[in-house]
Amino acid sequence: MLENAGSRLKAWLVAGFGTAAAIAVAGVMGAFGARHEPLPILAPASPIETGQWLLRPLKAYSAEGKDLYGVPLKPGAKALVLEVEMTNRTAKSTKDYFDALQANQTAVEAATKPFIVLTRDSTLSPELHPGMPERMAYVWQLPDGAAPPANLELSVIRKTYKQRDNLYGLPGWFNPTPVGRLTLPVGSGPDTADIQP
């Protein structure tokens, strides 16, 4: 009887130490696993492939006024603008480009979505056709009183094509993931010189 109790106590102690060791190891591994490597810095003048899109940043600038590509800005509002050449790499026309570039500026509120305009005819949010490069302007309205930054910092987002998604079993582009950071100097007005290689 006494041997039985001793054996049980020994088993509980071993199990307790084993559990504590497992928890400690899991905690240490979790802490190291949570470390994220910084995103790569992307060259401003180089083409950037994001799955659906081939992007070539052209220029960034601040602007003021209501006639900026027909974007409905508030009177007197300032805007931060990125002009970029976009080529649709998919097999059909799409306008799934709203999250391809995300501004990291403190001057731009995180929830603020940009207006996206085709520069050649000021069409808001057009579908872009496969294989046809188009010059687009991403326009973020700055909050009242906010000064334009010296540099525009962006995260570039890539999506992955799946033949069937898990929810509906349909094909599409999923799993948006940042692939790098892009920094462009901010000029003033739309006549700023393009960034060229």
Q: Which topology of the largest domain does CATH recognise?
A: Immunoglobulin-like
Q: β content, as a range?
A: 35-45%
- The tally of strands reads 9
SS field, number of helical segments: 1
Low-confidence stretches: 192-197
Structure keywords:
disordered C terminus; transmembrane helix; membrane; 9-stranded mixed beta sheet; 197 residues; DUF4352 domain-containing protein; 16% helix; Immunoglobulin-like; transmembrane; 1 helix; alpha+beta
Would you give an account of this structure?
- The structure is a single chain.
- The protein has 197 residues and is α+β, with helices and mostly antiparallel strands.
- The chain has 2 domains: 1-32; 48-188, Immunoglobulin-like.
- Helix content is 16%, strand content 36%.
- The chain contains 1 helix and 9 strands.
- The chain has one helix at 2-33, and strands at 48-49, 53-64, 78-88, 101-103, 115-118, 123-124, 134-141, 151-162, 172-188.
- Strands 1, 2, 3, 4, 5, 6, 7, 8 and 9 form a 9-stranded mixed beta sheet that branches.
- A hairpin with a 3-residue loop joins strand 1 and strand 2 (53-64).
- The chain starts with a helix and ends in a 9-residue tail after the last strand.
- Residues 192-197 have low confidence and may be disordered.
Task: Tell me briefly what this model is.
This is DUF4352 domain-containing protein. By secondary structure, the chain is an alpha+beta fold.
Which secondary structure elements does this structure contain, and how are they paired or packed?
Layout: H1 2-33, E1 48-49, E2 53-64, E3 78-88, E4 101-103, E5 115-118, E6 123-124, E7 134-141, E8 151-162, E9 172-188
Parallel strand pairs: 2-9
Antiparallel strand pairs: 1-2, 2-3, 3-7, 4-8, 5-6, 5-7, 8-9
